[in-house]
Amino acid sequence: MQLPEKNPLRPDDDELLARYRADGRTEHLAQLYLRHTELVYGVALHLLRNRADAEDVVMQLFEELIVKARRHEIRNFRSWLHTVCRNLCLMRLPEPQRHSRHGVDTGVSYVASRQRPFC
Hints:
Elements: H1 13-23, H2 26-48, H3 51-71, H4 77-92, H5 95-100, H6 108-114
């Protein structure tokens, strides 16, 4: 199976990140923003269940990208973006909702309820 050739007129995510890291021009990040805004907004809306909060997370995420893309090596941009988006959303939720709504179960409540007092 032959891989498709890269189109120089439509660089992939890795190429856009490399260009941004090399010259610092935010036009490269603008292309990433346009390419991935719907994905990030969808994730944020699903987790936060509030349009205004989801829009805020999208803006915050891409503002952070301006700094983080130059400091960190990002190997799989789409995956990284999804993870950062999810983390930003979870930080906005009150503590009880972080665990119950999104399947993050530490098991502490179950273990605590099953333990017997020390005698």
